[in-house]
Write a structure and sequence with these properties.
The complex is a heterodimer of chains A (476) and B (365).
Chain A lengths: L5 H14 L4 H17 L6 H24 L3 H38 L17 H17 L8 H9 L1 H4 L7 H9 L6 H33 L6 H32 L17 H7 L2 H15 L6 H19 L3 H27 L5 H27 L3 H11 L8 H24 L12 H17 L13
Helix pairs in contact in A: 1-2, 2-6, 3-4, 3-5, 3-6, 4-5, 6-8, 9-10, 9-17, 9-18, 10-15, 10-16, 10-17, 12-13, 13-14, 14-15
Chain B lengths: L1 H33 L13 E4 L2 E4 L4 E2 L2 E2 L15 E7 L1 H4 L9 H13 L4 E5 L7 H6 L1 H8 L3 E5 L25 E2 L7 H13 L2 H19 L7 H20 L3 E5 L14 H10 L5 H22 L3 E2 L1 H4 L15 H21 L10
Parallel strand pairs in B: 5-6, 5-7, 7-9, 9-10
Antiparallel strand pairs in B: 1-2, 1-8, 3-4
Helix pairs in contact in B: 3-12, 7-9, 8-10
Classes of the chains: A mainly alpha (476), B alpha/beta (365).
Chain lengths: 476, 365
């Protein structure tokens, strides 16, 4: 049941109609049932690994809490933490990475002259497993660290994990932010509903009009055996716009749906293509994942503490694992490695870069900012090429093509990319300049003016959208 | 209470503003994409003009992807010094779902020219949506004088004969030809057609099939439903096709008959059954099995005429693979389907050309 499908619209209307009049406890029970139904619509069998890991996490957190309250030694709690972490990672590893590692090992052995037939299983990847595993892990780790009290109500915990708007593609909600919203009665005001609808509207515009329309351009370039330099450049730009609008569009819809039910989800994107350096990019892109990796991987590895090489190692490891989280393929590992390397290089050459881009006048600072944003955007786009490519051979071909970016110049192709990217660009410049993300907050306009703007946007969504496609991040 | 009523009024006002804005968007889009007039009517009727014989193509008309040439037929302007082939049919030939330039007559031209290695073949698509053989017969003199074809490929649509049970009488005088009139103008919100298309895109197929079945059930309460098509209607079709074939032959035009292909083939695949229900929505008076039976019987009729008139028959009903691979709906082709039909027709034309001792004179008649 995709967010951009008619069945979801019907599902949401039915859920809201039943949800609003119910008292708080009944609301939670109903939302849990609705979320199970939503997830089972993909494949009912997917519910089993989810329920299994959630039950283990709940039980482990409960045990850790009990030990903590009884004043027993700390080591006892560690056992339950390990059990939870191993269960979650084992499930994730089995469903997502088993075949990948098996095939990779077989290829490695083949190269070493040992010919073995691949040992693979026919596994269907449960949708959203990477997201809910990280959500559940954050709960047990937070309880272990004493940053969160475990809940005594299994169904509340289950709802926090299973809640349908964030179940399949995030944002990766931390238990300490979502669980209290589940437990306490929610207040839903007209403002919540209006803000939620705003967000959903923006999300649909990004997904249906921009991402789905620009996708064929990227697909065409990435399916050409040896595209020209200019086509490659435009294809990569198109994919950069597509993946941003697709994923942030999904997030906006998820946040909007949650909001009209009285839940508040964290911000997942904050104008990422306005980043001026790699570190800034990761503070703006997929914030729920990057902050998760920072808090539960990078910092436990040592973070910024210790010797310089250790910090670099921590950065590289975090980003490579972050890359692998996206998918079981070597290009994702390479993408993670690339971003790790960018972060290490940025750390190393930051003083030099700051010197180069230093400006004393306001105009100079503005120019310096634009130049840094443009440079960082090129680095980000190269990363998207690694992310989207289907083989190392394709990466090599496209990298070679990018060394002559103007060869095969095609103004028509550039115009097509610009046509779909321009609404995003204009809105984001407006958002950046105003320093406010809510661009639909047009209170200065009379209601009639807003009706016109909404009507035009609705026209674009309904009648000028591209071929409906699944959200890219659903595969992760 | 008064406050609530005022608020409701304001909401109605916003809705009206929103709808008007969207209508303006629709008209602007038509203007930008298709060069359509902003204020006047813009629908499929834009392609046609009317005289006492009925509708026919308006020269240089266009509507969405459909473009008519200077003589009112779909396709590019007529060339001179070519070997002309006229394709006679209805919406399947005119092209409904194929992308621009991929309707089967266009693909037939490409295939023939590609095989010949030159550009001498010219295929003229003389069909329109909803055209019956009887209407083609009425327009026959105009087709002949305008196109002057060397070959006529007739791909008849069978369904008009669900309602036609009398053959066209060639001897009956036609009404005096009146000057061509454009389609009547009337206000039509362009948003409506878009909304309909949008709903077709988003509503699940099963739900749409169910709706159409319901519509058919409603319609047959008024007209009643036949199990099979009466023999009289088949005979009317046979007579009209035979007359048209004979007319072409009498004017020195070679004829290639093509049996009508459908998504359902000789044996109905359960996956295609909902499309049969959809098809029936347009012809509620004939039951689903009756439609299949009609296809079978009429194709047999086409084969019989081929034998009796000694003209080649391309048996598309048998040769075309049924199912979604070739058909966008029940009878209309998608791009690969149009290509498949064009290929088998081209094969027949090439076979005839090879077997004939007559030297194809590639000059305009």
């Amino acid at each position: 049941m995709l967010f951009n499908s008619f069945p979801f619209a019907v599902f949401l209307v039915v859920v809201l109609c039943v949800y609003y009049p119910l008292p708080h406890k009944a609301q939670n029970v109903f939302l849990l049932a609705a979320s199970c139904f939503f997830y089972a619509c993909w494949d009912w069998r997917f519910l089993f690994p989810l329920l299994f890991s959630t039950t283990i996490d709940y039980w482990c957190a409960q045990k850790m809490q009990d030990i903590s309250e009884s004043g027993a030694p700390h080591a006892g709690r560690k056992r339950y933490l390990y059990l939870s972490v191993i269960t979650n990672l084992a499930l994730l590893g089995f469903f997502k990475y088993f075949n990948f590692f098996s095939v990779s090992l077989q290829e490695l052995l083949n190269r070493a002259g040992m010919h073995l037939s691949p040992w693979t299983l026919r596994i269907i990847l449960p949708i959203g497993i990477s997201f809910y595993t990280f959500q559940a892990l954050s709960y047990t780790i937070d309880v272990y660290r004493g940053e969160l009290h475990s809940t005594r109500n299994f169904f509340d915990f289950l709802l926090a994990i299973l809640y349908f708007p964030h179940l399949v593609a995030g944002p990766i909600q931390r238990a300490h932010s979502l669980l209290p919203q589940v437990i306490r009665p929610r207040v839903i005001t007209r403002q919540h509903i209006s803000d939620g609808l705003h967000l959903m509207f923006c999300g649909y515009f990004k997904k249906v009009f921009i991402a789905d329309n620009i996708a064929p351009i990227a697909n065409q370039v990435f399916s050409t055996p040896s595209p020209s330099g200019f086509a490659t450049l435009m294809g990569v730009y198109a994919f950069a716009v597509q993946i941003y609008c697709d994923f942030s569009g999904y997030t906006d819809i998820a946040r909007g749906v949650a909001k009209i039910m009285g839940f508040e989800f964290m911000l997942n994107f904050n104008l990422p293509y306005f980043a001026t350096n790699p570190s800034d990019f990761w503070n703006r892109w997929h914030i729920s994942l990057s902050s998760w990796l920072r808090d539960y991987l990078y910092i436990p590895l040592g973070g910024n503490r210790g010797k310089a090489w250790k910090v670099k190692r921590n950065l590289m490891l975090t980003m490579i694992i972050g890359g692998l989280w996206h998918g079981a393929a070597w290009n994702f590992v390479l993408w993670g490695f690339y971003h790790g390397a960018l972060l290490v290089l940025h750390r190393e050459f930051r003083p030099t870069a700051d010197r180069i881009f230093r400006a004393s006048t306001p105009f100079g600072r503005r120019v310096s900012f634009v130049v840094r944003v443009l440079i960082m955007f090129q680095f980000t786009c190269y990363g998207w090429m690694l992310f989207r490519a289907e083989s190392f051979h394709q990466i090599r071909i496209m990298t070679q093509a990018l060394t002559h970016p103007l060869s095969g110049y095609d103004p028509h192709l550039a115009l097509r990319v610009l046509a779909f990217a321009s609404p995003l660009l204009l809105v984001q410049i407006f958002q950046y300049v105003r320093g406010k993300l809510n661009f639909l907050d047009m209170n200065w306009l009379p209601a009639e003016g807003r009706a016109v703007i909404y009507a035009v946007s609705a026209y674009f969504i309904c009648f000028l959208g591209g071929q409906p496609k699944a959200f890219i991040y659903f595969q992760f | 209470m008064k406050k609530k009523a005022l608020f409701a009024l304001r909401v109605c006002g916003w809705l009206i503003i929103a709808l008007l804005t969207m209508e303006v968007c629709a008209r602007t889009e038509d203007k930008v994409r298709y060069g359509a007039p902003f204020f006047s009517t813009y629908n499929v009727d834009n392609l046609y003009q009317y005289d006492s014989l009925g509708k026919y193509g308006r020269p240089n008309a266009s509507y969405l992807k459909w473009r008519l040439n200077e003589v009112g037929y779909r396709g590019p302007a007529l060339r001179t010094g070519t070997y002309r082939i006229a394709c006679v049919g209805a919406s399947e030939t005119f092209g409904q779902y194929e992308s621009q330039g991929n309707e089967w007559p266009r693909q037939l031209e490409s295939i023939l020219n590609q095989r010949a290695g030159d550009n001498h073949y010219e295929v003229v698509n003389v069909s329109y949506m909803g055209l019956s053989l009887a209407t083609t017969l009425k327009r026959f003199p105009q087709i002949l004088s305008t196109v002057q074809p060397r070959i006529a490929v007739i791909y008849p649509s069978y369904t008009p004969y669900i309602d036609i049970n009398q053959p066209f009488d060639l001897r009956a005088p036609l009404p005096a030809l009146t000057p061509a009139q454009p389609a009547p103008q009337h206000f039509e919100p362009r948003l409506y057609a878009r909304f309909e298309t949008f709903m077709k895109t988003v509503l699940p197929d099963a739900f749409q099939h169910w709706l159409r079945a319901g519509q058919t059930r409603h319609d047959i309460t008024a007209v009643g439903a036949m199990d099979t098509l009466p023999e009289q209607n088949i005979q009317a079709f046979k007579s009209d096709l035979d007359t048209l074939t004979q007319q072409f032959l009498a004017n020195g035009v070679q004829v290639v008959l093509v049996t009508h292909a459908s998504r359902f083939g000789s044996k109905l695949n359960p996956a295609d059954a909902p499309f049969l229900v959809d098809w029936r929505k347009f012809y509620p008076s004939l039951k689903e099995q009756g439609l299949l039976d009609m296809e079978h019987r009429m194709s047999e009729t086409v084969r019989q005429i081929g034998v009796s008139r000694s003209v080649p028959v391309v048996d598309a009903a048998t040769l075309m693979a049924p199912g979604a691979g070739n058909f966008a709906d029940f009878v209309h082709f998608n791009d690969p389907g149009a290509h498949a039909l064009a290929t088998i027709v081209a094969d027949q034309i090439n076979r005839d050309a090879n077997s004939s001792t007559a030297n194809i004179n590639i000059t305009h008649q």
